[in-house]
User: What shape does this take?
Amino acid sequence: MVESHTDAYPDRMADGTWWRYVATVTGNSTQKDIAAATGIDQSSISRWQRGSNTPRAEAVVTLARVYGHSPVEALVAAGYLTSDELGVVELTTLTGDLTGASIDSLLSELRRRLVAAAGSKVQSWPPGWSADDPGVGGPQNTEEASDLIS
Assistant: This one.
């Protein structure tokens, strides 16, 4: 079983970032359900919720993988890594607030979810579009672009 440790990271624990992340990615599942899904001891999860304990890195990665999220994002939420270290600008799953998310970030996340849901049935982006290529932000010719502006 993966457990927590007592070396807390006050910045992440005090502001509740880790628990907000857990609640968001698990869909507000109960401690018991999270424990059953991940193999993490329920008492450890309880301590996370109270903010008295930071999870071990192994538990962070396990939780993220079980719930289909990026382990790197989870490590940022738990305070093991900073977004500056990764060049991560937005971690919208931490708050659930998408108002500050860029269109490219939203499209990339939408594509990631569609690919995960559709498996091998996935088609590529329409010609000239790519949320994965920051150099490409829209149609490649002006005729297509003018059709999209209202």
